[in-house]
């Protein structure tokens, strides 16, 4: 059965377009949960081609993958910069944490983003491959709120090291709006 699930996963991964999300949901539901401790690593990522807007957004930001350093230190958007270096893109307001959470009937590792109402739920394809579903309310972009009533489906492959130099950047002031104290008139 496990070999069959891996075969189905690989077939969906290579499809040019997946019209019906229900077959991805069915595959996800059959996969085993994974613990937070099992996924501390660097990961390269990709998306299943469903036409979801997040796939295009990730491509535009040159998304490479994710980096789970510890339960309280998770970088969901490892991206390439203009110089070919990798960095943690904090465009959605920070990074995140890992937590065990129930989703679709199973308790499994889940990435909870710092600011945006986004959750990445993970299931194990094999020891070095994860399938993920991003579940979110509305995503606040610099331009508008982007509503969505569909899940975003993606996958992660464990890597021993990044293919480029990782540089630290701190581009986001997460607290600027919330700590401003009104001035007395």
From TrEMBL:
Domain GXWXG: 27-84
Top-level lineage group: Bacteria
Domain DUF4334: 94-158
Full protein name: DUF4334 domain-containing protein
Residue ranges that the Swiss-Prot or TrEMBL entry lists as coiled coil: none
């Amino acid at each position: 059965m496990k070999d069959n699930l891996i075969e189905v996963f690989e077939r969906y991964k290579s499809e040019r377009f997946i019209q019906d999300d229900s077959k991805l949901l069915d595959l996800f539901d059959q996969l085993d949960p994974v613990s937070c401790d099992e996924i501390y690593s660097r990961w390269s990522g990709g998306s299943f081609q469903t036409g979801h807007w997040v796939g295009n957004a990730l491509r535009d930001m040159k998304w490479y993958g994710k980096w789970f350093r510890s339960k309280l230190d998770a970088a969901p958007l490892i991206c390439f910069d203009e110089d070919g270096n990798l960095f943690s893109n904090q465009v959605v307001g920070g990074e995140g944490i890992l937590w065990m959470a129930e989703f679709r009937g199973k308790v499994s590792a889940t990435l909870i983003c710092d600011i945006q109402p986004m959750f990445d739920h993970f299931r194990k394809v094999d020891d070095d491959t994860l399938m993920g579903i991003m579940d979110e309310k509305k995503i606040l972009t610099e331009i508008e709120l982007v509503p969505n009533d569909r899940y975003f489906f993606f996958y992660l492959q464990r890597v021993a090291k990044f293919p480029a130099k990782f540089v630290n950047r701190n581009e986001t002031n997460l607290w600027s709006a919330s700590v401003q104290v009104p001035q007395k008139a």
